[in-house]
Amino acid sequence: MNKTSIPSIDSIDRQWFLVDAENQTLGRLASEVASLLRGKNKPNFTPHLDTGDFVVVVNAEKVRVTGNKSEQKLYRRHSGRPGGMKVETFNSLQGRIPERIVEKAIKGMLPHNALGRQLFRKLKVYKGPEHPHSAQKPQILQLHSASLAK
Q1: Structural domain includes residue 22
Q2: CB count, 10 Å around CB of 117?
Q3: C-alpha distances in angstroms, 37 versus 82, 84, 126?
Q4: Which of 46, 61, 59 is CA-nearest to residue 101?
Q5: Which residues pair with residue 88 across a beta bridge?
Q6: Can you give the pTM of this predicted structure?
Q7: Residue 43's domain is classified under what CATH number?
Q8: Count of CB atoms within 10 A of residue 121's CB?
Q9: What integer pLDDT is reported at residue 5 of this predicted model?
Q10: Checking CA distances to 124, which of 53, 54, 79, 135 falls within 20 to 30 Å?
Q11: What's the chain's average pLDDT?
Q12: Kindly report the CA angle at 57 between 32 and 38, in degrees rounded to 5?
């Protein structure tokens, strides 16, 4: 009988990846980054363990959506008070806090439990091309998704 091996916490090799979101489609970018955060690209992937890598996303303000989503896609948040619902379109949120768009898309593709919260902490999203993680020497990652031709 074959035994399934579970990697120990010490044996997990975490790498840092740098992803440029410029002209990337939001959903395609988010699904690939979520896969990296979970560690699905590694041979020792275990669904109930954090075997993933750290991911730094830069140029979040240059991410694209297809169709009419820039005017029609809505982002909702609630203050917890009666009547505290705030609704904002993709365009207005991209002008105000573009990092939140990418974070929200990736967070929705992670598990909705304590493991997902732990994985989300390894995601770093920045508005422009600069980031403070150069000491970790992140590897530049070219995504498989095709950019929009506009």
Answers
A1: yes
A2: 12
A3: 36, 33, 17
A4: 61
A5: 75
A6: 0.91
A7: 3.90.1180.10
A8: 10
A9: 83
A10: 79
A11: 94
A12: 40
